[in-house]
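User: Could you go from structure to sequence for me? I need the amino acid at each position, not a summary. Structure tokens:
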């Protein structure tokens, strides 16, 4: 057996030998609050990028005169960046440290934001795709390092709760992102007499300038956060391991059924989350006969609900198994999506908003269940979870194709199928939890 198996990433070099019960089970241990706050802020920053981008499919479709499927190439480029850089992000963690990975990820994120400026000057759609690819590559490295880093800031028993706690800041960023999109982008784009987007070719330059301004503002903030993390003393939970042990680790992970299923479930979840939010901006105007800006109000409330329920789920994990809550969430999402597809109207819109509330625990819970009890393999395992974010690059265009060919309502059959897969993993994860307890 590889000697790295004996390394426990949850044991930090600055931990006390006594490990009293209260400290051992604290979600954020004493002395780790500031590092946790800096890392949790990263969850907020990448959510801003995600939710600034989601509504822009319709904007780019209008500016460049494209089909829904063609405009969704923005989402493909964005989430493909996650896929490409997840393993390099894990290697950075193994060879250097989680902190180094976080810094590299934040730096690439800021660089991608700044690259939108020359794309705007050139008015070339493929340059926007490339800038979003670079931006998301940074997010892939950042998430690959930040998620497991949060998990190892305290005891293994509280790792999934701690990750859910950090992820609870993600919806705050999501709401900020959608408000920035609504007030800084959508409100300033030209519209026709029906208050629908209408961008004449002569005004494309001004429209693209409006699109990129929020990203440049975010990049300036990221520079400050980057410096704060650089100069801060971070816990030594991620001490250097210059031996990557790539082949042995991959062999162990490929033979772990729970981990493999979790990656599939994560692929389905991320693709579904992005699809649900992206095509909310198509579904709501159709069902309620309202403008894009009015649809964003509903979208904002969906994100608020997403954030509030994530805090609630974190509290409920004191009393219920994460797999049980995941099973409940998947079932409720399926019920809501059936309403979206076959009922429509206000009932369908409300059900679509409720999907955001029920699904909010999914990413951190799948991540935590899938990476449980993996020891030093956690660093590379986390990259697989982040690579699964490529689901956003594949499922979102697939639903865009369905929107073009069968209509927006029926296109939500694809998210419904994905939640059935997530529910199946929740059942499997519950059985895995029981088998792990029995073997202890």
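Assistant: Here is the amino acid at each position, in order:
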């Amino acid at each position: 057996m590889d000697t790295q198996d004996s390394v426990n990433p949850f044991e930090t070099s600055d931990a006390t030998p006594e490990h009293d019960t209260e400290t051992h089970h604290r979600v954020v241990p004493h002395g780790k609050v500031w590092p946790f706050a800096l890392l949790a802020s990263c969850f907020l920053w990448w959510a801003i990028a995600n939710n600034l981008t989601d509504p822009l499919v319709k904007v780019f479709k209008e500016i460049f005169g494209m089909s829904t499927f063609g405009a969704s190439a923005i989402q493909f480029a964005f989430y493909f960046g996650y896929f490409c850089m997840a393993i390099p992000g894990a290697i950075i963690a193994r060879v250097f440290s989680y902190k180094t990975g976080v810094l590299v990820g934040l730096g690439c994120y800021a660089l991608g934001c700044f690259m939108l400026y020359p794309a705007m000057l050139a008015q070339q759609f493929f340059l926007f795709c490339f800038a979003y690819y670079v931006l998301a590559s940074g997010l892939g490295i950042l998430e690959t390092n930040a998620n497991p880093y949060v998990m190892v800031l305290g005891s293994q028993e509280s790792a999934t709760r701690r990750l859910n706690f950090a992820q609870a800041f993600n919806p705050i960023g999501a709401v900020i992102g959608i408000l920035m999109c609504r007030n800084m982008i959508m409100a300033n784009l030209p519209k026709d007499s029906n208050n629908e987007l209408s961008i004449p070719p002569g005004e494309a330059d001004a429209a693209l300038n409006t699109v990129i301004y929020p990203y440049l503002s975010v990049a300036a903030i990221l520079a400050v956060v980057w410096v704060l993390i650089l100069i801060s003393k971070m816990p030594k939970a991620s001490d250097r391991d210059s031996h990557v042990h790539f082949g042995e680790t991959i062999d162990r992970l490929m033979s772990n059924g729970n981990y493999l299923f979790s990656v599939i479930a994560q692929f389905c979840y991320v693709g579904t989350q992005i699809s649900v939010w992206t095509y909310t901006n198509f579904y709501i105007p159709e069902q309620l006969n309202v403008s894009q800006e009015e649809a964003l109000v509903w979208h904002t409330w969906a994100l608020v609900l997403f954030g509030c329920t994530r805090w609630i789920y974190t509290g409920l994990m004191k009393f219920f198994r994460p797999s049980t809550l995941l099973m409940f969430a998947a079932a409720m999402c399926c019920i809501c999506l059936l309403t979206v597809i076959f009922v429509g109207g206000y009932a369908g819109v409300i059900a679509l908003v409720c999907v955001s509330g029920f699904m909010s625990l999914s990413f951190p819970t799948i991540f935590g269940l899938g990476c449980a009890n993996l020891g030093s393999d956690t660093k590379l395992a986390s990259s697989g979870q982040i690579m699964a974010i490529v689901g956003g690059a594949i499922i979102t265009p697939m639903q865009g194709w369905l929107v073009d060919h069968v209509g927006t309502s029926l296109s939500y059959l694809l998210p419904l199928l994905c939640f059935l897969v997530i529910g199946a993993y929740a059942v499997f994860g519950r059985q895995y939890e029981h088998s792990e307890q029995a073997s202890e």
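One structural detail worth keeping in mind: The chain has a mean pLDDT of 80.
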